[in-house]
Design a protein that fits this description.
Largest sheet: 5 strands, antiparallel
Distance between the termini: 59 Å
Structural class: mainly beta
Strand content: 25-35%
Number of helices: 0
Order of helices and strands: EEEEEEEEEEEEEEEEEEEEEEE
Oligomer: single chain
Helix content: under 10%
Radius of gyration: 26 Å
Number of strands: 23
């Protein structure tokens, strides 16, 4: 089973030209099948898209096509949503004389940008300390990063009195390392210049900032372009030294005092990783020495604590 030709580049959301699947002999030559073969169509995750039997992807949405007995090919069309080189997979589902699997990676370009979004979910921040970097980017209708054609400014506002900065100044402590005293650092000094907007350069898609604030609030992005929508994201602010144990609901809240393991706990524990990682819940139940329930760099693949906490007791 194979594709007869490579697809020309297309834009996310556009319909492809006809895709021809061919049954072949061992030498790679087209060969008619003696009986019908059903071929399932799919994308390798995380790629997404739809398949159709009609030109222009106007009708006939499907997840499979068939090579009829006596023929050597079948055809379909696809509409990809994921930019890059998403992998299209065609798999023969026949029980006898199976033709195997064929793959193709078309080139898919992002569509025009339509919104400005956050790079990733919120990471908890200790009150009045400098946050981890908040990345934002312009994206097309399907969520692919898409470059802007002209310099685009994005206003950043908060409903909780956040101070926004381009980066953390040396005298405004960033998120304290796990294992520190968790004092949350000092407030911004007079030398720390606040900002109200960031810029996405022409031909680019990303920008970033940091913030500090006294209480949980929402950050809203307001692009200066009439063709771009903005977005909002809640940011969790926690008080220094407080332990939270509320991961069972699926909401990840960190331990800003350094993520100390709590021997004997029968609930899931949470911890704050360094800025390169994400808050994660660790194993439920009583921590035991050298188990994944212990907060250490080695037991959590480097995401648990910036420094090894050693072995949990109890």
């Amino acid at each position: 089973l194979g594709f007869s030709s490579m697809q020309p580049p297309l834009t996310a959301g556009a319909c492809s030209v006809k895709v021809v699947l061919v049954s072949t002999d061992t030498a790679g030559n087209p060969a008619a099948v003696a009986e019908g073969h059903d071929v399932a169509l799919s994308w390798t995750a995380p790629a997404q898209g739809l398949f159709f039997t009609s030109p222009g992807c106007a009708a006939g949405q499907t997840q499979a096509v068939a090579i009829a007995a006596g023929l050597s090919n079948t055809s379909f069309y696809f509409r990809p949503f994921t930019a890059g080189s998403p992998e299209l997979v065609a798999t023969d589902t026949s029980q006898t004389n199976n033709l195997g699997t064929a793959t193709e990676k078309p080139t898919v370009n992002p569509g025009p940008p339509v919104e400005v979004v956050f790079d990733r979910p919120t990471t908890p921040t200790v009150a009045n300390s400098c946050s981890c970097t908040v990345g934002i980017h312009s994206a097309d209708y399907y969520g692919n990063r898409a470059n802007v054609s002209a310099l685009t400014t994005v206003q950043v506002v908060s409903d909780a009195g956040f101070t926004f900065l381009s980066s953390c100044p040396s005298d405004l402590a960033a998120q304290p390392d796990a294992g520190s005293d968790g004092d949350g650092g000092s407030g911004p000094s007079a030398s720390a210049s606040s900002i109200t907007q960031v810029s996405i350069d022409a031909g680019a898609s990303g920008a970033s900032f940091v913030f500090q604030g006294p209480a949980t609030g929402v950050i809203t992005l307001i692009p200066n372009s009439s063709t771009l929508f903005g977005n909002s994201q809640g940011e969790l602010i926690v008080n220094p030294g407080l332990n939270f144990d509320t991961c069972s609901s699926g909401t990840v809240i960190c331990l800003p005092d350094g993520g100390t393991c709590l021997p004997g706990s029968n609930k899931k524990l949470c911890y704050r990783p360094d800025c390169s990682g994400f808050p994660l819940c660790i194993l439920s139940g009583k921590p035991t020495p050298n188990s994944d329930a212990c907060c250490s760099r080695t037991s959590c693949g480097g995401l648990c604590r910036p420094a090894d906490a050693g072995v949990c007791g109890g």
